[in-house]
Fold Tyrosine specific protein phosphatases domain-containing protein.
Amino acid sequence: MSAYRIKKKRPRTPPPEEAPSITEESPAASGWRESPKGGAALHGLCAIKTPLKAELCASLPAADWWTVSDALQACGGSAVGLWIDLTNTRRYYEPRELPQSVRYLKFQTAGHGLIEEQAMLQILHEISALRVARRPSRGLPPEEVAKAEKAASAAARVVVHCTHGLNRTGYVVATALCRLEPRIPLGEALAAFSEQRPPGLWREQYVRALHDTYGGAIPPLPPPPSWEHEGRK
């Protein structure tokens, strides 16, 4: 039985959708084009910025296109088994663009907002379930089991994204690393995410919330990306 049990709650009214300013220069929220696409795996977790449906990419140079198909390929193709969408809108792409083999989960979260505990527990449960499903068949020698399970966890790719793939996404990735990889302390998790997806978590409320849960001194925050200095959100 999974260690992460979900208590039933009354349905919650989702927060109002964010209203991205969609123009030829900015088909999603401001700063989307400047944010790196992502795709590198960190213990099987692939942090990316949100992909866009083709009609939103149509006005962009080919090098800036970032569709669901592009994201899947960057994150490991058929290795992807779970897709976690944290954006506060359903305008960017259609979940039906994903293969049927990929489980899609939507947690509508306002920009600058923390992921609710109930949602986080479900995310951890789903990641654990995917890793169990991808483990090799029984019959391995005892000395090979831990090695095989580690390899299976890394191979079971989980895509996580918000709009820019930074703060909401980083909060989820750091939490998963601390909860599902017990040898990874928070400081190491934050540093690893910063390497995976520069500049990492740069909004104080996310880092402070993580440290309230996992302890340790709050490290210096990385500088915000350049588009934030230009007055964008």
Observations:
- The CA atoms of residues 11 and 118 lie 12 Å apart.
- The first strand starts at residue 38 and ends at 42.
